[in-house]
Amino acid sequence: PKELLKVKDLKQYFPIKGGLLGRTINHVKAVDGITFDVYEGETVSIVGESGCGKSTTGRAILRLDEPTAGEVEFDGEDLLALSKKDMRKKRKDLQVIFQDPYASINPRQTVRQILEEALEIQNVVPKNERAKKIADLMEVVGLGAHQADRFPHEFSGGQRQRIGIARALSVDPKLIIADEAVSALDVSIQAQVINLMKQLQRDFALTYLFISHDLGVVRHISDRVIVMYLGKIVEIGDKTSIFDNPHHPYTKALLSAIPVPDPDAQSERVLLEGDVPSPINPPQGCRFHTRCPFATERCRVEAPELRNIDGMKEGHMGACHFMEEIKNGTHQVE
Ligand code: SF4
Ligand code: MG
C-alpha cells in the first residue's frame, strides 16, 4: 500500500509571553521533530500520557494550529504549502472527530441541518440529492434516517459520537483523525463505536490516525502504534510488536499500568515514577531519563535517535540507547 500521509520532522513550539512587554520569553516544545508515515487503509494510533504532544500532532497535520517546522505530505501534496483557502477545501479529504462532538456542533441545529451544512460547504452532492445522502449517512452510522430531525441534546453520548462520525463521513474523506474520540464513553459504548469505525473503514476505504491515551482501545483498533513522550516518538511498530514485544522502557511502563491476563508478561514490568517533566525545558539527553529505571550517564547527555531494533521486525523502531541490552538482560545501570 502507498503512503497517504507523510510527516517529516514536524515541530510545534508554542510561544510563552512574559514580562511587561509581553515578549516571547520561552517556548513549549509540544512536538519536537517527529517523523512517521500512514499507509492507505490502515489505522495508526498515537499513544502517550497527556501532554506528550499527540493531540498537538493531529492539530498540526490539519493546520488547526500552524506547525512551527517540518513537512506534511498528504496524498502526494505538500499540505503546508497550501493557502488557507485551499487548505479549507482540502479538509474534505482530512476530517477530524473530537472527544466531545457536542462542543463542535451547533446545539440549535438539527442533525439534518448539521449534515446539510457540511455537505453544502464542501459541495459534495447536488442540492436535490442531499436529503438522500443524509438518510444514507444516518443509516450507515446506525442512527436511522428517522432521527435526522432531532437535536443533538436528544441523543446519548455514544449517539452524538455517531453524529460526529456521520458529519466527518459526509464529505467522503480519505483520512479521519480521531482525537480521544471514544474516551468519554462507557466501555461497552466505546466498543460499539470502535466496531462501527472499523466497519466504516472497510466499507469506505478510510485511513485512521487514532489519538488516544487508552491502550485498551488502541489495542482494539490499531494496525500500527506510535508511542510519544514529551514531544518525541519513543517507539513505533505494528500492534503485535508494541504490545507483545515492547522495547522502549517508556512503552513498557505504559503497558505495565494496564492489567494483563498473562502473569509471565508481568515479569517485564517497568514502574513509572514522578510526573512528566515540563515541555518548556525538557530534560537533556534522553527526555525519559528522569523517570527511567535504566538510565545511565550516557542517557543524561546523549539523545537517542529513533532506530530499528536489532533482531526485530522491519519498521519496529525505538529511541533508546540500550533496548537490546535491556531485553537480553546485559544492561548495567551504574
Ligand atoms: Fe532509559 Fe536511557 Fe533508554 Fe532513555 S536512553 S529510555 S534513559 S535507558
Ligand atoms: Mg489530547
Automatic annotation (TrEMBL):
> Does the record carry Ligase as a key word?
no
**GO BP terms in the entry:** peptide transport; transmembrane transport
Which key words tag this protein in UniProt? ATP-binding, Nucleotide-binding, Transport
Judging by the UniProt lineage, the source's domain of life is: Bacteria
Q: Which GO terms describe its molecular function?
A: ATP binding; ATP hydrolysis activity
Q: Which CDD domains would you find in this protein's record?
A: ABC_NikE_OppD_transporters (cd03257)
PROSITE patterns under this entry?
ABC_TRANSPORTER_1, ABC_TRANSPORTER_2
The UniProt entry, under Pfam families, shows:
ABC_tran, oligo_HPY
The family database entries (InterPro entries) matched by this protein are listed as: AAA+_ATPase, ABC_transp_ATP-bind, ABC_transporter-like_ATP-bd, ABC_transporter-like_CS, Oligopep_ABC_C, P-loop_NTPase
Q: Which SUPFAM superfamilies match?
A: P-loop containing nucleoside triphosphate hydrolases
SMART domains attached to this UniProt entry: AAA (SM00382)
Q: Which residues form the ABC transporter domain?
A: 5-255
Kindly give the NCBIfam families that the UniProt entry links to this protein: oligo_HPY (TIGR01727), PRK11308.1 (NF008453)
Which family is this protein grouped under?
A: Belongs to the ABC transporter superfamily.
- Write down what this protein is called: Peptide ABC transporter ATP-binding protein
Species name for this entry? Halolactibacillus alkaliphilus
